[in-house]
Design a protein that fits this description.
166 residues, alpha+beta, Alpha-Beta Plaits, 5-stranded antiparallel β-sheet, 3 helices
């Protein structure tokens, strides 16, 4: 049976340390690194930084999964639909190939803001479209026009929202 790729959520600026711990215990992992030019008052310098802040990919068995979660600097797994999110081997390879071909890569979150139209992609309201009324701390308020109701989601459920290009 082939091991799955999962996403570890780390403490801020602990991606390289977690990668080092994983290396020591011989766990297959991937922390995408990019070159970034930093400006100090007296000089510029190229530094290597993680592409995805606070994320490290690990390829582990079910038995290894919870051992890895206890490493220093690891906060948890990234969850989707109540289970640790699984990343395909093809997605990992795509990231690697993309970074091999492009030097100056930055990640910008696809932010959902008040007024955006979204589609709900999981749960009882899956497939319905809604308008984002507000986002405060860990709660998102959605107005589902077709049902005439307001839905409040938590931070974990917000991953199931897809921004519509209208």
């Amino acid at each position: 049976m082939e091991n799955n790729w999962y996403v570890l959520y780390t403490k801020p600026r602990f991606e390289k340390k977690v990668s080092s711990y994983l290396e020591k215990i011989r766990i297959c992992h991937y922390c995408p690194i990019v070159k970034v030019q930093k400006q100090w008052s007296d000089r510029k310098k190229i530094v290597h930084e993680p592409l995805l802040k606070s994320y490290v990919f690990v390829r582990v068995s079910e038995r290894e999964k919870w051992m890895v979660a206890d490493l220093p600097g690891v906060l948890s797994y990234v969850y989707f639909d109540g289970k640790p999110a699984i990343v395909s081997q093809d997605e990992i390879i795509s990231i690697q190939l993309f970074l091999n071909e492009h030097e100056h890569v930055q990640v910008h979150p696809l932010g959902i803001i008040a007024g955006d139209e979204v589609r709900i992609d999981s749960g009882i309201f899956s497939g319905l479209e809604a308008e984002v009324v507000s986002i405060k701390k860990k709660k998102c308020v959605l107005h589902i026009h077709s049902l005439g109701l307001v839905l409040v989601t938590t931070e974990n459920e917000n991953a199931a929202l897809v921004k519509l290009n209208k």
